[in-house]
């Protein structure tokens, strides 16, 4: 098949762009290269994916770079030049698709930089100028020519090398490639370095920085490697800060090139989120952190709200960690590679523990920060190099854990019992614990090297209930500490466990024979000797140990990785006798069915199992059991041959590996035979593709999909349960009777059923909307709803049938105090968090349930720390019974990813709320925001404020001043609901507002969207005339009752205005049902706002009668939505319309022969005066229609064109022909509108190929079958037609005409809907 043809079989699934893109994400570059050759469509789709990520260390790039590298042979220069030119042209053609670029070859760096400079000089977005990730590392990249030169220099004597260096320095360096690099670099030649290498480093640095500057508008990640510098260094640091400061999108910076002042860097790049450096933060480096003029650890530094990850691989003073966390309160990840004491030089520093100074002074400073409340760290990930911690500084280490109470990931290098106890006590939210150490333990003792103590990991497993990953291969747990009388492991969600379980009783061959003899039939009635009795005790104790250990592990049902002996071996220097003796001390776990391995059949999720180095006892039977009991098993560690293994051991492992492969192959073959009639497996076995397909399906469709097969069930269940709203579909039918006796007795959809399905599928739920109290209980008690992203409470006013029956016996209107019941958590005890509330008409049983549901709701919030959206706007009053507002602020502060909060009548202090959650982006409330909610400090993170109450103009101005990053305000009204302001009071408020804005700030507001739902007495116009000049960046303006004054002020003050709309649509455009607005407001916008994209206000009118030039000079070609009325057009009578048809025919007479004119009846007689007047009217009709059509035809990006709306008289009822129902009457259509007939010029709108919605409801149009056919052909993207829907008035003539047009359009275009 040629590349220009499209394969006929690919037009169904692989033609969806989203699915093709997701498939491409799983293909390797060689696969993508084959895919672009299939057809033209695949070429256009996969070329951007093929060039999206370029790494010159992979695939054929190294060979390509080698061919263009200089060689000692000068005969290849022409070939190298041709190859270089070919690569350059390739980058010019496809470089526009590159987003991630990783370079390690100087030659390719030079080519890419040159292409980017040429493209940048041309302007616009072109080749190699749209990079997002850039990393250049020239480590160990030596061309053949450079290698030969290096060998030559090494052969020189010391005097000859010195003379050559002096000659090179006297010659100087070549000129810079760009004037911006003048004086930036400084070159130094090394003792064994050639001049050629020095010049290469000089040029590579220039190419790197020129490439960076050409892409600085889009780079998000930049890696500056020391290897790129070579023999050059940056002499002008201002150039570096200026270049980085121009990267507005920079989020990740890796710096191995130069020592940067952290404070100045963050001022230059305020949006930086991750910074990694190998430089130090001691002495002057720490002073740089505090500020320009600060020293030591004093204040003066600026907090960075955007920095999320910080990696310091160089030395840092340990007593500054607490202050570092104070400087960066939103830091999520901190990696400290080397901590030193403040009184130790860097060159001779010995490593110290975290936060450990020479004495206890540093710990006292950090403790003071915690006690004084200065430190509010939100750190989640902490990695510390902790070697050989002295015993005298253990208390300081425990203080380090106190600094980060919300820690979820902890990685350290040492662990002892006191540290483990502190971790279990303080790190309540710990999910990942890892211990990284690369030393072999001494198996001759029960102690491990350093401070890694036996059973320290056991303490963590017994204390951290949220733990999911325990990666501590070098930690040992004694089997005796896992017996029944020891505390249980409470980490039921554990997914990874790497440790060593030792201390099992070991039986020699002689002892095993003795036990078999005792248990044999020949020993019945014989007296046991002391030796036999002792051996039997050992055997019983050993059996108890294995039972306890396997029961502990079997309880971890969610384990995915279980490694019980990561690479464990006995020390090679021990003699054979010493190894036998140490087995009674170490004696690791035996993996065998004879000791209880079958208890681990509960680990159905296990994918990786390791027992390397154990006296495993694994044989054919054990492997067969693993394959059957662990269907997801993919990796088995312990069967690979090692260097120290004997020949017999290697042969045995080889046989076991072969047996394992055969068993797995047999099972896979059975599965393939079972699923060979399921072709969907070829696509839907990729979970992400299933998610993409599932996002296009409705819940009923997804419910059908999950019932197809087990594969489809696993693929589509996450999509089905992603969003749950118990107010939709069949939820209400089940939940209103879940507590009835009938459901409980029959075991139907009762409360237990609700709890079980949430426990089973709750881990898939991301967005949860709750209207029934039982779902709060199910979501909390099930324990699986821990990954919610959005949680919304919707009223909770629904009552079950049982609650309705109980309510009948309670007097109406009587309120009861909800009595406190049992507490579900210690955080509620003492009566300081929850308080008694009043409940109207609820039984005692319902009150007890309410008391529990309130607690379950707040615990559910604390169980989902990943929430991003929290909606409390319809929370019942009995759920807001908090005695302490501090509890609410503390709970919200724990939700570190929360960006959206909405609340109803819950009174909050905005200052405390925004301080508790500084990452908040959107805040919605039903409260009236007045002077009581004035902000006292700046909060730059908030982007949206929505107030469904009223807000005084001065309060809104104060809000805008305190929220400099605010982009959108949605407001109900400037005035209270039932209040009116005298003119004098309004004038005083306007003057006060002007004075405040003039004195507030010289910089304009960043507001981009303003929405005002309700206006009164012209107050909005006066207030907005003051506000709009303060909003030069405003793009969206939505106001109910838009006036001419507001429109003119917006045109003058908001040059980037894109969206103008009415906040609410009227009930009808019938004159008695809408307030009169100024005419031709859309005309002003269309003639003055070149960036306008949306005009949405069906009450707004373009009146041709009042302004004959309204249909001229429109300057907004990007308009996508035009929704208004066009009125005031002259319309023709029926006689004039017939004359128009005759005129259209007469216009042909000029080009017809005379004989043909006679046959048609054309004569040369003069027209009557009445005919001249009629012709003049017809010409005016045509001229105005054509003007409007021509202006509309220029709006080629138009997607919505709606010029009509509901036109019923809601003050009159009409009995339609059958006399069965009453409907609202349709009056005569709106006069003076466009005809939309082909005779009037509708065909001029054929340029609107992007039109998706067309509306003409209520207009006096002349659309017939011909016009419908024209629309179906010329508007291919049309999906919605307004004006021919069924209005339940079948007895009227226009209703029948609508029905005919609707049926005709359905026959032509079934994909079009009608409203």
TrEMBL record:
SUPFAM superfamilies: F-box domain. Residues 346-366 are annotated as: Disordered. GO terms for biological process: SCF-dependent proteasomal ubiquitin-dependent protein catabolic process. Gene3D superfamilies: Ribonuclease Inhibitor. Signal peptide: none annotated. GO terms for cellular component: SCF ubiquitin ligase complex. Pfam families: F-box-like. It comes from the Eukaryota. Residues 17-55, 695-725 form the F-box domain. This is F-box domain-containing protein. It comes from Linnemannia hyalina.
């Amino acid at each position: 098949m040629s590349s220009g043809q499209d394969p006929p079989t690919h037009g169904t699934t692989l033609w969806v762009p989203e699915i093709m893109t997701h498939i491409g994400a799983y293909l390797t570059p060689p696969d993508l290269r084959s895919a672009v050759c299939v057809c033209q469509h695949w070429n256009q789709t996969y070329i951007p994916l093929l060039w999206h990520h370029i790494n010159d260390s992979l695939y054929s790039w190294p060979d390509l770079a080698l061919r263009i590298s200089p060689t000692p042979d000068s005969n290849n220069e022409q070939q190298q030049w041709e190859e270089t030119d070919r690569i350059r042209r390739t980058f010019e053609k496809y470089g526009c698709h590159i987003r991630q670029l990783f370079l390690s070859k100087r030659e390719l760096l030079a080519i890419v930089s040159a292409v980017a400079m040429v493209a940048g000089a041309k302007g616009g977005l072109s080749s190699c100028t749209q990079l997002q990730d850039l990393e250049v590392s020239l480590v160990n990249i030596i061309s053949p020519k450079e290698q030969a030169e290096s060998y030559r220099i090494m052969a020189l004597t010391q005097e000859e090398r010195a003379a050559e260096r002096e000659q090179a320095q006297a010659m100087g360096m070549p000129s810079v490639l760009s004037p911006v690099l003048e004086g930036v670099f400084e070159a130094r030649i090394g003792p064994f370095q050639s001049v050629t290498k020095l010049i290469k480093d000089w040029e590579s640095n220039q190419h790197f920085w020129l490439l960076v500057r050409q892409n600085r508008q889009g780079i998000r990640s930049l890696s500056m490697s020391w290897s790129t510098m070579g023999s050059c260094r940056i002499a002008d640091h201002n150039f570096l800060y200026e270049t980085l400061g121009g990267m507005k999108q920079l989020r990740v910076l890796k710096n191995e090139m130069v020592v940067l002042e952290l404070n100045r860097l963050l001022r230059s790049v305020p949006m930086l989120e991750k910074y990694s450096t190998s430089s130090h933060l001691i002495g002057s480096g720490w002073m740089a952190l505090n500020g320009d003029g600060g020293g030591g650890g004093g204040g003066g530094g600026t907090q960075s709200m955007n920095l999320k990850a910080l990696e310091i691989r160089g030395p840092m003073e340990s007593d500054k960690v607490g202050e570092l966390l104070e400087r960066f309160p939103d830091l999520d990840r901190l990696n400290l590679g080397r901590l030193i004491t403040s009184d130790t030089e860097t060159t001779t520093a010995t490593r110290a523990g975290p936060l450990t100074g020479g004495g206890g002074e540093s710990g006292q400073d950090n403790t003071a920060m915690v006690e004084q409340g200065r430190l509010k760290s939100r750190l989640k990930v902490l990695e510390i190099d902790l070697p050989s911690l002295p015993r005298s500084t253990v208390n300081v280490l425990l203080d380090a854990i106190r600094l980060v109470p919300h820690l979820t990931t902890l990685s350290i290098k040492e662990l002892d019992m006191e540290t483990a106890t502190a971790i279990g006590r303080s790190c309540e939210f710990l999910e990942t614990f890892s211990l990284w150490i690369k030393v072999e333990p001494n198996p001759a003792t029960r102690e491990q090297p350093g401070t890694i103590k036996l059973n320290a990991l056991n303490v963590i497993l017994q204390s951290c209930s949220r733990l999911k990953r325990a990666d501590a291969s070098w930690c040992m747990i004694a089997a005796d500490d896992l017996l029944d009388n020891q505390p249980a492991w409470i980490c039921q969600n554990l997914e990874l466990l790497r440790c060593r379980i030792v201390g099992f009783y070991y039986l020699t061959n002689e002892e095993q024979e003795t036990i078999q003899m005792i248990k044999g039939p020949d020993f019945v009635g014989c007296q046991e000797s002391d030796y036999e009795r002792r051996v039997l005790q050992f055997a019983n104790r050993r059996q108890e140990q294995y039972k306890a250990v396997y029961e502990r592990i079997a309880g971890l049902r969610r384990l995915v990785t279980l490694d019980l002996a990561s690479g464990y071996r006995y020390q090679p220097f021990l003699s054979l006798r010493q190894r036998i003796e140490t087995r009674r001390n170490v004696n690791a776990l035996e993996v065998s069915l004879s000791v209880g391995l079958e208890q681990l059949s509960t680990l159905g999720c296990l994918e990786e199992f390791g027992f390397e180095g154990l006296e495993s006892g694994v044989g054919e039977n054990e492997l067969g059991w693993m394959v059957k009991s662990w269907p997801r098993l993919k990796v088995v560690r312990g069967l690979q041959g090692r260097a120290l293994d004997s020949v017999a051991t290697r042969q045995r492992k080889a046989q076991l590996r072969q047996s394992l492969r055969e068993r797995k192959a047999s099972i896979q073959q059975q599965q393939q035979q079972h699923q060979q009639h399921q072709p969907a497996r070829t696509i839907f076995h990729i979970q992400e593709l299933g998610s993409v397909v599932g996002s296009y399906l409705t819940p009923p469709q997804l419910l059908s999909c999950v019932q197809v097969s087990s594969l489809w069930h696993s693929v589509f269940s996450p999509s089905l349960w992603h969003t749950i709203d118990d107010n939709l579909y069949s939820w209400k039918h089940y939940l209103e009777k879940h507590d009835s006796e009938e459901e409980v007795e029959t075991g139907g959809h009762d409360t237990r059923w609700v709890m079980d399905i949430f426990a089973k599928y709750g881990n898939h739920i991301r967005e949860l909307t709750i209207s029934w109290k039982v779902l709060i209980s199910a979501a909390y008690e099930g324990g699986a709803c821990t990954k919610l992203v959005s949680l919304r409470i919707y009223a909770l006013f629904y009552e079950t049938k049982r609650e309705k029956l109980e309510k009948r016996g309670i007097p109406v209107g009587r309120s009861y105090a909800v009595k406190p019941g049992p507490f579900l958590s210690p955080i509620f005890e003492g009566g300081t968090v929850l308080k008694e509330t009043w409940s109207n008409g609820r039984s005692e049983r319902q009150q007890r349930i309410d008391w529990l549901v309130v607690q379950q709701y707040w615990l559910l919030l604390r169980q989902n720390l990943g929430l991003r959206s929290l909606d409390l706007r319809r929370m019942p009053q009995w759920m807001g019974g908090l005695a302490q507002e501090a509890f609410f602020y503390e709970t919200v502060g724990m939700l570190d990813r929360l960006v959206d909060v909405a609340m109803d009548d819950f009174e909050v202090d905005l200052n405390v709320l925004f301080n508790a959650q500084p990452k908040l982006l959107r805040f919605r409330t039903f409260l009236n925001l007045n002077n009581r909610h004035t902000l006292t400090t700046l909060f730059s993170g908030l982007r949206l404020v929505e107030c469904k109450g009223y807000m005084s103009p001065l309060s809104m101005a104060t809000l805008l001043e305190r929220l400099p990053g605010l982009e959108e305000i949605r407001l109900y009204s400037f005035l209270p609901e039932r209040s009116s302001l005298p003119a004098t009071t309004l004038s005083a408020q306007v003057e006060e507002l002007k004075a405040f804005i003039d004195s507030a700030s010289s910089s304009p507001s960043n507001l981009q969207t303003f929405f005002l739902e309700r206006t009164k007495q012209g107050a909005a116009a006066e207030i907005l005339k003051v506000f709009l000049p303060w909003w030069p960046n405003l793009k969206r303006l939505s106001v109910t009752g838009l006036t001419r004054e507001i429109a003119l002020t917006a045109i003058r003050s908001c040059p980037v205005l894109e969206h103008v709309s009415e906040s609410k649509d009227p009930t009808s455009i019938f004159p008695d049902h809408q307030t009169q607005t100024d005419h031709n407001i859309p005309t002003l916008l269309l003639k003055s706002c070149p960036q306008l994209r949306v005009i949405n206000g069906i009450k707004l009118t373009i009146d041709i009668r009042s302004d004959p030039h309204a249909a001229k000079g429109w300057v907004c070609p990007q308009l996508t939505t035009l929704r208004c009325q066009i009125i005031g057009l002259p319309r023709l009578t029926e006689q004039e319309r017939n004359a128009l048809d005759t005129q259209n025919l007469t216009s042909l007479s000029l080009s017809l022969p005379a004989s043909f004119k006679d046959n048609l009846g054309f004569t040369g007689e003069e027209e009557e005066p009445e005919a001249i007047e009629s012709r003049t009217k017809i010409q005016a009709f045509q001229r105005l229609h054509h003007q409007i059509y021509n202006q509309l035809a220029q709006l080629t990006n138009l997607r919505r064109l709606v010029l009509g709306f509901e036109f019923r008289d809601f003050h009159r009822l009409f009995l339609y022909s059958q006399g069965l129902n009453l409907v609202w009457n349709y009056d005569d259509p709106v006069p003076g509108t466009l005809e939309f007939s082909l005779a009037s010029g509708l065909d001029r709108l054929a340029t609107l190929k992007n039109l998706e919605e067309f509306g003409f409801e209520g207009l006096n149009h002349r659309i017939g079958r011909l016009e419908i056919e024209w629309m179906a052909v010329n508007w291919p993207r049309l999906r919605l037609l307004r004006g021919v829907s069924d209005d339940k008035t079948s007895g009227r003539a226009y209703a029948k005409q609508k029905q005919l047009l609707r049926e005709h359009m359905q026959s032509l275009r079934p994909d079009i809907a009608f409203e």
